[in-house]
Amino acid sequence: MANHDSGIADKVVIITGGTKGIGKEIAQSFLKEKAKVIICARNKPQEIIRTGENNADFFKCDVRESSQVKALIDYCVTTYGRLDVLVNNAGGAPPADSSSASERFTRSVIDLNLIAPLGFAQMAKNVMVNNEKGGLIINIASVSGMRANPMGVAYGAAKAGILNATETLALEWGPKIRVVAVTAGLILTEDSRAFYGDDESVSQIAETIPMGRLGDPEDVANACIFIASEASNWMTGTNIVIHGGGEKPSYLSATTAFESS
Can you name the residues that pair with 240 across neighbouring β-strands? Predict the structure, then answer.
């Protein structure tokens, strides 16, 4: 998206989990639009996240710790004067059998993927309301929250909760604060590569997707840029699904009625 008319230049943006994968691509996309970007994670990135001459500011923060989240938002307001956009991107969970996953594991997954972004959104909203034009919260969700998610029941449940929270918060906080979800499908990142397997396995998975490929982090970032642009200023309480057309139902492989032409 061209930056000359997006309205994103000089906006102050916080991106959680912004040091790698989808979060890193989102950060770089906002930098391209000349936004002021703060990324946070538990560990400092190996190299500065930058696009051209624009660098992302890094703040060490565990989003599950409310005191650290408050410190980050305080730093943002003190350093940049305001907060315009929050991208709740941090999240994830390793696969776990639903019949044996421990209570501690389940709580940790829900804390990271549901409780943490809700808490961050609350604190962000309380400073965004002071902006003349309000603010925007983008919640990165997952198709795991829209369908069955075997070996990941807690993660799927948390992401389903994020979708409901997006609608609820948009209703409660509008019109000053917009809240939008971006639901990511099967996205190929450095972390998901280990889960999806080798190139042959990735190719086989791609064949189940109508667009013929797994998603790229840039696909999700492009959606975030659109949502933050002036072109979407009436969009709130909704869910943009980025999944390449979804996954073909497994029964199709058992019939010849839907063979590709």
Answer: 182
What is the DSSP pairing of strand 57-60 with strand 54-55?
A: unpaired
3-class DSSP state of 254: helix
Residues carrying an active site annotation: 155
On the question of pLDDT at 188 being above 70, the answer is yes
Question: Tens digits of per-residue pLDDT, 3-59?
Answer: 456 999 999 999 999 999 999 999 999 999 999 999 999 999 989 999 988 999 999
Output the pTM of the full model: 0.93
What is the DSSP secondary structure assignment for residue 11, as one 8-state letter?
Answer: -
Q: Alpha-carbon distance 77 to 187, whole Å?
A: 33
Q: How many residues does the chain have?
A: 261
Which residues have CB under 8 Å from 119's CB, separation 6+?
63, 66, 69
The residue ranges of DSSP E strands in 155-221, in sequence order, are 177-184
Is residue 214 within 8 A of residue 184, CB to CB? The reply is no
State which amino acid sits at residue 2: A
Question: Residue 37 is encoded by which pair of tokens?
Answer: 């970007």
